[in-house]
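quick one: adenine bound model?
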Amino acid sequence: IGRAERMNFYILTLFPDMVSQGLNTSIIGRAAGRGLLSIRTVNIRDYAFNKHQSVDDYPYGGGAGMLMQAEPVYLAYEAAAAEIRTRRQGCGEQERKPRVVYLSPQGAVFNQCMAEELAKEEDLIFLCGHYEGIDERVLEEIVTDQVSIGDYVLTGGELPAMVMVDTISRLVPGVLHNDVSAESESFQDNLLEHPQYSRPEVWHGKRVPEVLLSGHHANILKWKREQSILRTKERRPDLLERCALTEQEKVWIGKM
Ligand code: ADE
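yep, here:
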């Protein structure tokens, strides 16, 4: 088999409760309960090496705030990596370092394409920073990918890690019951999704578009595609440049 059945996430954090509580509900929690995902937190504070259990210190050269020290982060990483090594050896796989994602506003900006690439991994480690950041030396040693979830600054890497775990998890086979929906949604081909309607046929005087009630499958597909293109042109023209349109569609857009 190419890919193992289960995808294993390890989240290295000072706030394990925040992450586990955020990810053990709804679709992701259910998928973990069904064994499709394993989401484990590693509390960096458990690897503090002094009696005060502190994991931060002042930055050399001065500057605002505190830094997370290298050693507790490294030991937390080693705990996760050792578990991954043991499991992989058990499967007779050759030794390969796991990917470690460090959440940081300095990273490459996360998108669906990156999520699809990461979803191919069997194990992923996320490193959540706090305070003013982490000693650069441990980052150099363990981090394979630096990722930002957008151009704004959060207080820590936990929410970004949760955003990434959620996005990647829904791409794991079986997590969404409806396999088509992961594919046909917004961004899959860089087009936004068309509007959708459910009962009743008239609500607050607004009718559901006639074509959707027509039962004419080809017309419905054509309408959905046109709506997607229209929406993308109006709301995210930057995406439109990167999506695969037919020559006919390009002409149609040109006339709008
Ligand atoms: N940590 C703080 N801000 C962040 C962001 N925008 N993305 C990822 N990690 C972060």
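The first helix runs from residue 16 to 23.
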